[in-house]
Design goal:
By secondary structure, the protein is α+β, with helices and mostly antiparallel strands. It contains five helices and five strands; from the N terminus they run ααααβββαββ. A hairpin with a 5-residue loop joins β4 and β5. α3 packs antiparallel against α4.
Length: 171
């Protein structure tokens, strides 16, 4: 490993035990716990959002019926559809996380890194690490900055969710 590895460890939040488990093709106990914790946090936010939108939709549908307002009824129905999409995304997230934990395997991708910054609408910026034959991983800015352009790395990702778990420079 080069001097860059500690920066990757800090940015991605993994340790030597995690990396050893990933090299062996499996999740470490700590990584499984982090996946569960991240999913619980997503679940909490989703539940709060769904309940809030449900109350707004119910209120709008009630007011639309009471006032004979097609516009309020339409907006209430639209919010209900958005709520259903949020529930679907939450279910998909759960299935991916449970797949990662059930299988417990890790996918390794090795190749030269290309760092890509994508700007949408002039405001939203996303950071992407492209490795090998075009495998792309969206990452945070600190993780993006920990990679060196053009250098070869091995990225270890969860099998179902494709979450980036660890990475190391490779020869």
């Amino acid at each position: 490993m080069s001097l860059q590895a500690p920066d990757l460890m800090t940015a991605l939040g993994f340790n030597a035990e995690d990396l050893a488990a990933n090299r062996a093709g499996s999740l470490s106990v700590g990584q499984a716990a982090r996946l569960r914790k991240n999913w619980r946090r997503q679940l909490t936010v989703s539940i709060i959002l769904v309940i809030g939108l449900m109350l707004v939709a119910t209120t709008l549908l009630f007011l639309g019926q009471r006032n004979d307002s097609g516009a309020l009824t339409f907006v209430g129905m639209a919010i209900t559809v958005i709520n259903a999409v949020i529930v679907g995304v939450g279910a998909q997230s759960y299935l991916r996380m449970s797949g990662d934990l059930r299988v417990g395997s890790v996918i390794a991708t090795t190749g030269a890194v290309k760092r890509v910054v994508r700007v949408a609408s002039g405001r939203a910026t996303s950071y992407v690490i492209r490795v090998g034959d075009g495998d792309e991983v969206r990452v945070s800015k600190p993780v993006f900055n920990a990679f060196e352009e053009g250098q070869r790395y091995t990225l270890y990702r969860a099998a179902a969710s494709k979450a980036l778990l660890s990475a190391e420079p490779s020869a």
